[in-house]
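Researcher: Please translate sequence to C-alpha cells.
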Amino acid sequence: MTGAGERDTGDTRDTRVAVDAALLPSVFSGAPVAMIALDRDGAVTAMTPSVERLLGYGEAELLGRPLHDRVRHQHADGHAVAAEECAILAALRAARPAAGEDDVFLREDGSALVVTWAFAPTVLAHTLTGGVLTFSDARAHGAEVSRQRARLADLEAANVRLALLADVSRALGDSDDVVTGLRTLARLLVPVLADWVTVDVLAEDGSALERVALTHRDPALDAAGAARLGPLPPLRPGMTSGLAQVLHGAPLHHHRVVPAVAVDALAAERLDLVRDLGAVEGITAPLRARGRTLGAITLVRTDTARPYRQEDLDFTADLAARAGALLDTTRVLGRQVHRAEQMQRALLPELAPRIGPLELAGLYRPASDLAQVGGDWYDAFALPDGSTGFVIGDVAGHDLHAATRMGAIRHKLRALAGDRIGPASEVVTRLDRVVQRFAPDDVATLIYARLTTTPGDPHLHWTCAGHPPPLLLTPGAPARLLDDVVDLPVGVADLARADADLPLAPGATLVLYSDGLVEHPGESLTTGLARLLRVGADLGGTPLPGLGPELLARMRPTGLDDIAVLAVRLDGPAPATAGGPVS
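Model: Translation complete:
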C-alpha cells in the first residue's frame, strides 16, 4: 500500500483520468459553478462545461495539460503568480483543502476573471490521486447573493403582510361594533405598515364625514390625536383633494408629494394634520362595498428611507376592501335589526295605562344579539263581562317566524278570551287546539289571567302553560311566586288544564315576565326564581312605569334572550317602600 505522499503508478493515473473523464461531466454538468479535476501533478483530467463558459478554454486546450501553465493565475495587482506561490498547487501537494476569494484567472482572450474558488484533494486508499477545483465569477456570485438577499427580504415582507392580514381579519371579525373594529385595524397597521393612520367614514346618506380612528407610532402624538376624532368638513361636489377624490369614487391614491397649498376644506384639515404629525408619503384607499364608497383609510410614512412599493399599495387596497365590507355588513345588519325590532314592537299592543281599577305598565327588551328577534309578548284587554284579561307569553325560537307566530297567537288568544267568557284554562285549551291544528310545529309558553273586580272582592283567576310563575307583591305581606299550577306549553299535547284562584288585596302588584329575566347559563331556573323573589320583594311601592326597568337593573339578565315584563297594580292605598335596593 503506497502512502499519501507516494506517487501512484502509471496504471493508477490512467485509471484516474478515465474515471474523471467519464464521471465528472455527467455528475457536475448542471452545476452553476465551474469544476476542474486535476491529477496529482496538477494536470487537467476532466472539466465541466461551465469552465469553457467562464474561461473560454475548450477541453482540447486543457485536458492533459498542467492547469497552472495553461490558465494563468495572477495577483490583484496584475503580477503573475509563480507555480511555487500558487495556493492551489500548494494545497494539491499537501493533500489538504483550500479556498480563496477575489483572485484573478486570465481567460483565453487575456481578460481577467475575478473568481471565488475552493479546492479539495482526492485521496483513494490513502493515496493522493489529485483533486477538484471549483470556481465561480466573484462579481456574478456577489450579484446573485444580493438578489437572494433581496428575495429573502421580499419573502420576509410578504410574511409580515400575511400575518398582518390574518390579524386584521380576526380583529374585524371579532369586533363588537364597527368603530372598535376600525380603530383596531389602525393600531395593527402602526408601525408595521405606516407611521400614522386615519380612518374617515361617510354617513349613510353621504352628507357628513367623521374621523373614527387616528393612530400614531409616537405615544405623545397618538394621545393628542384623540382630540382630532369626530366631524370633518363635509364632502361637497367639486372638491379635488386626494381624500375628496377617493370619497367621490376614485381608486386608491398614492401621495408622493405633500401639497403646499390646500385646494379644499378637506385638504386644509389634512394639511394641518400633516404639519403636526409629519409626512413624506401616503396612501389613501377607499372603504368600498357593493359599488358604494363608505369612507377612506389613509396610511402615512414620515421616513424617506421607507418608500411605499407596489405590493404595499396592493395590500392596502385589500385591507380597505375588508374594512369596507365590515362597515357595509354592520350597517345592513343594523337596518335589518331595526326593521325587525320595529316589526316586533308593532306586534306588541299599545298598552293602555289603565283598564278600570288596574294600572298597567309593559316593558320589552330585545336580546343583545342583534341578529335575533324573538317571540316574547304581553297583552292586556277588557272583557265583555267587565273583567280584565292579561297575558305574558313566549313562542319558541329567535327568528322572524317566532315573531310573526307570536303576533298570530296573541290575536287568537284575544279573540278566544272575548268570544266566550269562561275559566282561564278553557281559553288556553281552545287556543291549544287551534295551534296544534294550524301550526303543529309551534310551541309557546304563556300565562293567561283574568281579574274579576266584584266590588270589595277582586279575584285573580289564571292558568299556566309551562311559563315561569308570576311575582305577587301584596302590601303588608311577603312577596310570593304564584306557582300553584303549571301545565304543558301550548302546542305540545291535548291534555286537560288546571285553574288557580286567588283574592287580591287593594294595592297588590302582579309582575308577569318572560324567562329571559331569570335564566342564566349554567344556573337552574329555581336559582333564578329565588333571586327574583329576593330582589323584587321591596318593589311593591315603586311607581309602576319604573318597576320593570328597576327589576332589570337588579336582576342583571344576560341579554342572551328577549325579555318582556307586564306589571299590573290593583287600585288601593300605596304601600310604603320596604327599603333600598336588594343585591
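Researcher: Any highlights?
Model: The chain has a mean pLDDT of 84.
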